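User: structure tokens for this one?
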Amino acid sequence: MSWHMLYGNQDNVREALQRGEYDDASLTAWGRLDDLMALAEGLGVLKELNGIHPELTREGSIPRWFIHRALLLRTVVGDESLNAMQEGLFQDVGVLRLLGCTAREIREGFDPTRNRGQHTPCHVDSVRDRLKQTPVAQFYEVFTRCRARWIKAGFIKRRGTSMLDATKLEVDGEYEGAGEMTVIEETVDAQGKLHRRKVVTKGFTLVTLSYLVPKSRLLVVLAYRVLPIQQHEVTVSDELIEEVLAAVGEGAIRLLLLDRGFLDGERLGRWHGRQMDVMVPVKHNMAVLADMQGLAQLPTDEHIVPAARRGVKDAQGQPLDDVRLLGFHDLETLESYPGRLNGLLVTAFRGRELSPEDQWGAITTLPMRTPTAVLAAFDAYDDRSLVENTEYRELKQGYRLPTFIGKDASAIAGHIFFEVLLYSVIALYQQERASRDVAEGIRRWRRVVWKERLEVVVYVGCWYGRCRVREFATLLGRPPTGRLDATRVQLRPGRRP
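Assistant:
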């Protein structure tokens, strides 16, 4: 097929329409999607998708570039499953043109002799078969190459903050590679009696190492692994750290925020030796938390630094939480750590005094010798919640990550790859464009786009432009007659004038 670059130019398109000359038109209004795809093209993401090569016995009639771009964008359009693409993305002429389809391919399909125009531009089974025949390792390899392009483009800064965390993806049924684990579920009945029962959970664990965009709440996934649900996330933590340091450079991570599941003194010491500070919340049954609470009862000395903040606003004018903190340095309680650590204990939050049972804290290598340093450490600790509230919740609810598009290993790996890649590309788009339309996640963006969807995209040579349906007819010399201007119109199904 032939390709040519399209450039937006409203004036040229308007003039051509007034002459009655245009090459093609489609009914859609994916202006924001245009911008997103332009960024994906500029970053080379679309080019890297071509590196996904299914192991086919013969070359199919459906091009790889179409299948992989469609899988990347189906979530933006809102298709929950592969079957939904047939009546969703595959019916949107504007999106298909944006993907690179010609008008003939949209109208007749890539293989008109086989599908006879019934499933255009292709049947979803073709997408499903390509996924099934793609080696799992290829998805990781392509993600790695995409990350290299983000780094080269300057989106990922050295000496930044990164977060290492994991989340469970539960499934119901037989999924290839899924694991099983038994957990104790606790419930309280109407009489206040506690009941415990064993529950077997099946599924996967997604482990991510994400980069926090400075002065924002945006996270970009730099590396990830998918494990059987019973395998602990700490088993791949060193692998993910090494992968990112090798890609960005030694000393690339200034601060590493961890989930408590990664609390291992020997490992923390090894990471701190790689020119990075670490910070991890402590469990309520840990001796180090009890020690900090015990020290909090003693008179303040050189090892205990109190800090508080009330009625202060951040750089964006948003009120910060009223807190009272205690910082500790030279703690020796964590015996597995090769040295001394510092600690942080939150004793009051949002103006409310916390009981010892409600207090929480963290251990860190960050300095804790001044109130300013203690407050800075608390703000860094607070950023860790972004993984759960911004990344994982968005991936699970907005991107429907646990709703797999197949049960074989390749379909599972491909589904996670495309959703994590899209999430990161949209975060890069937010960083580049500072777009308010995507600031609250993909679901809000999807709603905004659908509200403004009914526009006409007009193609004239290498130019394209967008206009409302009424404006399109007017420019062609066929404006509305105006006979109904003073008539109140009511539509009644089944009745004819």
